[in-house]
Amino acid sequence: MAQVHLTLEDDILKDLMLGNKESAVGKLLEQVFNSILQAQASEQLSAEPYERNEDRTSYRNGYRSRSLATRVGTLFLHIPKFRDGTFSTDLFNNYQRSEKALILSLMEMVIQGVSTRKVSEITETLCGTSFSKSTVSGLCQELDPIVHAFQNRPLDRHYPFVIVDAIYMKAREDQRIRSKGFLIAIGVNEEGFREIIGFAVADSESEESWSDFFAILKTRGLSQVDLIISDNHGGLKKAIQKQFHGTSWQRCQTHFSKNLLDKTPKKVQMAVKTSLNDLYNAPNLKDAKARKQYMLDKYREQAPKAMDLLDESFDEITAVFALPEPYRKRLRTTNSIERVNEELRRRERVIRIFPNEDSMIRLMGALLMEHHEKWLTGKKYFTMDCYLEERDDARKQALTERAELLRVVT
Q1: Residue 68 in 3-state DSSP?
Q2: Can you say whether the dihedral through the CA atoms of 177, 178, 179, 183 is positive or negative?
Q3: CB of 195 within 8 A of CB of 187?
Q4: Are 81 and 59 in contact (CB under 8 A)?
Q5: What does residue 113 show for φ and ψ, rounded to 5 degrees?
Q6: CA distances from 323 to 257, 284, 331, 373 (A)
Q7: Is 224 left (phi over 0), alpha (psi -120 to 50) or beta?
Q8: How much helix, strand and coil, in percent to the nearest 5, is found in the chain?
Q9: How far is CA 48 from the centre of its chain?
Q10: What residue segments make up the domains of the chain, in order of their start?
């Protein structure tokens, strides 16, 4: 193996001494990577730059620039080129899967003839001077099995809380542009970490689509869910009731507030919004019921449609009160999954229209994998001790009551 020779530049040493760590580390990493590339080129050629020997296999032919996104910033690297085009490196094996998937989507668009000249220029810059269908196929074969394995992995943990949502994206199918629903499920496991437990593409958010999605999650091992949080989409709600008997459903309070205020006259919207937030923040269910009754009495005449909705939906928006107080704020809305959706949207806007459904799964799945890995290696979303202790106590009490009932019957 060729040796890597590294000499620290003065500006890097200066930044390190002055405490500009992020800048210095980025420059240092860039210099290290470029030195590794030079060493790999010398090893593959069996010759250093300008060295003449009988073992030389080819000749250097300049460089091409490439950027690499890292946690310390974007690195600008110089990739050696050989006259016979045989230089290869494994330096980018850890390059983010989502970046690979994004590039693949752009490349597929070019091949299908649906891209702009700008997209073509971007992909050629990222991939070299040119690329072909076989290049795209080879890259897909590298990435697709990883995404599919993650998408279909066994769910061998218990997930007491599950948050579900969907966003719509466009993809080409049968030479037409179709709207596709991208279904996502996030689970909170018993250790308190969030996980991406499922995602799929569906033609719509119908009851059938959601029911099929949930059925797949169950075959992979999802069971005994205590609480599901989602928006009040009709098909989704029915699918939850069908697939998760005995599981509580929490209607997203953020979406509910919007629905309620849309039915409220403007002159009392701010007052109703304040009262509704006061209801959400009640210390217990008893106080929440009292605050609901206060709203009904105060705003019934001014906002009858809104108050009817509040009265009808009260149990749905307060299911979270069955949990200990520390868990309610994060589990009363779908905000955590909305933030994931924003990141998916950011990448989807680059593509606008996916060349096919597989491309959508590849890019969105790669992004979700990165969120999943970041969550599992980061801070816990919850400390679950309080919840697990209260749940075990409730189960013991239920068993005791059942045993007592059986004793009385016999």
Answers
A1: strand
A2: negative
A3: yes
A4: no
A5: 75, 25
A6: 21, 10, 9, 27
A7: left
A8: 55, 15, 30
A9: 45
A10: 10-82, 97-149, 157-385
Check if the beta carbon of residue 384 is closer than 8 Å to that of residue 190: yes
Distance CA 21, CA 18 (A): 8
Summarize pLDDT for 262-300 with one digit per residue, the tens: 999 999 999 999 999 999 999 999 999 999 999 999 999
202: β partners: 181
Which residues make beta-bridge pairs with 75? 68
- Give which of 397, 396, 346 is closest to 370, Cα–Cα: 346
Tokens 């008893």 correspond to what residue?
A: 286
Return phi, psi of residue 85, to 5°.
65, 30
What is the widest separation between alpha-carbon atoms in the chain? 99
Confidence of residue 135 (pLDDT cuts 50, 70, 90): low
Measured CA distances, 263 to 254, 296, 298, 305, 316 (Å): 15, 14, 16, 6, 18
How far is the CA of 38 from the CAs of 43, 54, 126, 184, in angstroms? 9, 20, 20, 43
Q: Label residue 84 by pLDDT band (50, 70, 90).
A: confident
Q: Residue 168 is encoded by which pair of tokens?
A: 């719509």
Contact predicate 42/49, CB 8 Å: yes
The pTM assigned to this predicted structure is 0.70
Please state the rounded mean pLDDT for residues 200-228.
94
Residue 395 amino acid letter: R
Q: Which of 53-57, 67-71, 87-91, 349-353 has the lowest mean pLDDT?
A: 67-71
Which three-class secondary structure state does DSSP give residue 201?
strand
Residue length, the chain? 410
Integer Cα distance of 350 and 360 in angstroms: 12
> What does the buried/exposed string (b/e) look like for 12-34 if buried means 16 or more CB atoms within 10 Å of the residue's CB?
beebbeeeeeebbbbbbbbbebb
Q: Report d(CA 384, CA 136) in Å as an integer.
A: 45
Contact 15, 27 (CB under 8 A): yes
* Alpha-helical regions (H) of 5-116: 10-18, 21-45, 97-111
